[in-house]
């Protein structure tokens, strides 16, 4: 595709890749802090899967899942909250270290008897006192759940929905007063304020459930593609501060969490959390949304117990929960399943894995300066890729671009593996591929535009066969220069001098006449598979054997010349019918016009000799000028068509030729005969033609041998033949006279020089 790239100006060739690379770099900077970018997140997923979270000593966790079999055995989802209470009691009885319910229990339980009765009584008549008395004796599922939660370290879920990662964060101002498990780094006392993300919705815990040890956030924020990749350690819902279940498991277990606020505030809510740590453990950095990234280990092995088994046989199945942080949640198609970078998993299992990650203090870090580093790498890699595609062979340039893209990804992977920093390799990859593609697109566009211009420039100049091939794929190779034998035809339609003087009064008619005549002759050249060009003084040139190889190029040129003789009368009729005869002129005067044709064949250079719309296909070489010289001698020698010896040798058995003269093409050249093409082979049978041909042949033989007496006798015979032009007779009469005066020797051929 890049054969013509050296023809492009370097500064123009670099415009499009420079723009592409600059846009990639700018986008890398501007989107660096935007979470949820699909391409970046997909690459980060691959990197973290290739370099999974190391496992040293994992926090003991387990899950109790409400799966489809539990639903079939114990009842359709949703379950009343007393069922959750039963699960919590069973887990505590089994010796769970803590129990965390990852299903939201905020708001009223629609399956609680007291709630059902209250809603029914709202549409019935009756005194308020009677309603209160009736409701006071109905059981409450919240009360059952609260009693179960009061028996041990239990976290209850709130927050059914969180803001997705591509939405703006809604911040809430919270205080840790009365929460011994949390403190703010740098605060002089245990009282302080900090900004945390808000839970969507207005539901909160009932009065009975507020006595629970810790509320936890059941939901997980999703990226635009629906996957869970990050979570905040803390959220706020109305007047409740809720930890993520993974953090809640550790705080219930007695750990104190230290939160470090950012240096600047984001809103009236204050400064958000920039990092946190568990006890004296490692610091976990958070992004601008106060979130950290979910990082899974290589092997995911979280013990799981179906809810129905725990309820039906707690003694047999409870041993799997002993000494572990137990996460209870649904695992149904319509509830409790979330998409992650490693497939769809129960949200309870995801929370359990997050608890293990928080416990070891490991979280990938997306640095603030990452966008600038990625932009710099995009520019550097893009420049290298573009330079390679310009200066090295195409196949090697493709290999270099692919290698640079691979190195960009490999570099990001090695940086993450050694430092835990997440840098996006996609800007470098896009620059490595986009820069060369932009160069290729520029070259291809230039080629297409150039081809369109070229085709337009050659329309009406190349024969149909050549135009069809030029418009086909790869057809521009026809326009490469060639050096081969070319048959050249030079022609002009000459008007009588008297008629030209009349045209001087109305130049427009003269120009229209010449245009009409040339157009007719041009079509004749194209019909005979010739290529059309224009010479001096508005004359036409025809080339055969270029741009397409044509074995019969001499024969086609001669056939075209004979057809042009027939065109003369048609041109006269056409011009007369269009009233382009000239002011005061007549059709008879126009009929006195004559066509002059010269044909020569020999080696020439051929190809386009212009640019763009000013392009033209031309042959360059001695045959071109010699054909023009022959054409100029047409009126002197008589026949309308003059040819060189090469044309005569190729077609002397196919057409009727007359020997006219022997000349030199240049001073040092050898004398050669020139001929007049007068018609088809049937003309040879004419007595008049044979007589004329024999006399002219004998005249030239005597003149060549310097036998002036014989030449004089043959010249006298020539005078007596009708139709012989007087200028031709006068030419040889003058030559013979000069030869006698100068006493020319027989070894001097006296051939006239027609010039190059």
From TrEMBL:
Coiled coil: none annotated. Gene3D superfamilies: Nucleotide cyclase. It comes from the Bacteria. The keyword Oxidoreductase does not apply. GO terms for molecular function: adenylate cyclase activity. The chain crosses the membrane at residues 12-30, 369-389, 396-416, 428-449. CDD domains: CHD (cd07302). Residues 546-631 form the Guanylate cyclase domain. Keywords: Membrane, Transmembrane, Transmembrane helix. SMART domains: CHASE2. PROSITE patterns: GUANYLATE_CYCLASE_2. One of its GO terms (biological process) is intracellular signal transduction. This is Adenylate/guanylate cyclase domain-containing protein.
